[in-house]
Amino acid sequence: MSVRIGYKASAEQFAPRELLEFSVEAESRGLDIVAVSDHFQPWRHHGGHAPGALTWLGALGQATSSAVMGTSVLTPTLRYHPSIVAQSFGTLGAMSPGRVFLGVGSGEAMNETPATGQAFPPPKERRLRLAESIELIRRLWTEERVDFHGEYYQTEKATIYDRPETPIPIFVAASGPLAAKLAGQVGDGFICTSGKDPELYKTLVANVEEGALAAGRDVSQIRHMIEIKVSYDRDLDYAYNACRWWAALALTSDQKTGIEDPIEMERVADENADKAHTRFIVSDNPQDVVDRISPYLDLGFQDLVIHGPGNDQHRFLEQFTSDVLPALRKRAEAGVTVTGAGQS
After folding, report:
1. In this predicted model, what pLDDT tens digit does every residue of 90-107 receive, in sequence order?
2. Is 342 domain-assigned?
3. What percentage of residues in the chain have a pLDDT greater than 90?
């Protein structure tokens, strides 16, 4: 199975029409995937955005012709009932057959609590909700009338009338070992993000395999996707400065846990803006970027979704696809034997 290289559509940073323009350009420049975040609130209040991913993906499907598209990630447990997610992605899959994936995760307080007024559940409950929602979504995609009586979700004689002929793969986000096991147990793929302790990725990959084996599944049938944060520019100072908007990504768990207000998140992030670059591959050297992405290929990641942080995404897309992409594709084709299922 060949490696796919994609574009992260940063809905937290750009308005929906502008984001659509960038994503169409990404496809035209040869990128294979467009993955969009689904936040109710952005990391920053001033200058931030939060277009609804479900609406936006419908527009993307009509504006593009080949790119695989999906959420990285959507939370189908609190803001959305799983049945609504099943209906929405059934429609997307019917309109853009063979090009849609559903990326799901257990959520963040700053997206779920303000939108619902509900307390944000602890990690165990969030994982249980996620597993139950995936079960319900799949049943709604495959069964005629669904009576579902779970611990968290119920349906009565529910039918999704417009379903895709091509099954939609569900990718499960995993930032820790227990979520990675869940991805192995129930996911068609799993998703994580770059820029953390290298040992974490070895643990995540191992736990996906452990979860798959425990469920009697073949791990080679589970696609591995990673969002790789890359600030590449021919001007190195520009590349470093471009990261500052995303300083929240460099905050420790202790620094951001419990923050539900984008104004407060922005304040804390700005206090730590000098660390923003630490989550990114920052470089003006194309081969350096390829070399620093290579360890993820060596771990068996098949879908590399590139997140460029700068405000000028046209500049990033032009330089990345001209300077880095050819060498990255060559490295991907030459190095690692990649296995896995899902969409080609």
Report:
1. 999 999 999 999 999 999
2. no
3. 91
Distance, CA of 127 to CA of 226 (rounded, Å): 20
In contact, 36 and 69? CB cutoff 8 Å: yes
Nearest-angstrom CA–CA distance, 62 and 94: 12
Q: Is 39 a catalytic residue?
A: yes
Question: In three state form, how does the secondary structure of 179-215 look?
Answer: HHHHHHHHCCEEEEECCCCHHHHHHHHHHHHHHHHHC
Instruction: Given the residues 12, 39, 277, 307, select the one marked as catalytic.
Output: 39
Residue 27 pLDDT: 98
Residue 9 falls within a domain, yes or no?
yes
As for how many domains the chain has, the answer is 1
Instruction: Give Cβ neighbours of residue 102 (< 8 Å, ≥ 6 apart).
Output: 70, 71, 74, 85, 89, 137, 168, 169, 170, 171
44 domain residue, yes or no: yes
Cis bond upstream, residue 73 (ω within 30): yes
**Whole-angstrom distance, CA of residue 171 vs CA of residue 302:** 13
CA 146 – CA 160 distance, rounded (Å): 9
Under 8 Å between Cβ of 25 and 61: no
Instruction: State the DSSP H helix or E strand holding residue 177, giving kind and residue range, or none if neither.
Output: helix 177-186
Mean confidence (pLDDT) of the chain: 94
Tokens describing residue 214: 């425990």
Where residue 119 sits, what CATH number does that domain have? 3.20.20.30
Would you call 210 a catalytic residue per the annotation? no
Which pLDDT value is given to residue 260?
87
Q: Decide if 80 contacts 111 (C-beta within 8 A).
A: no
Residue 341 lies in a domain: no
pTM above 0.90, yes or no: yes
Distance of CA 272 to the CA centre of its chain: 24
Query: What would the pLDDT profile of 154-185 be if each residue is shown by its tens digit?
Result: 999 999 999 988 899 999 999 999 999 999 99
User: What amino acid occupies position 186?
Assistant: V
Q: Tell me, what's the pLDDT at 343?
A: 38
pLDDT higher than 60, residue 344: no
Of residues 12, 27, 46, 108, which has the active-site annotation? 108
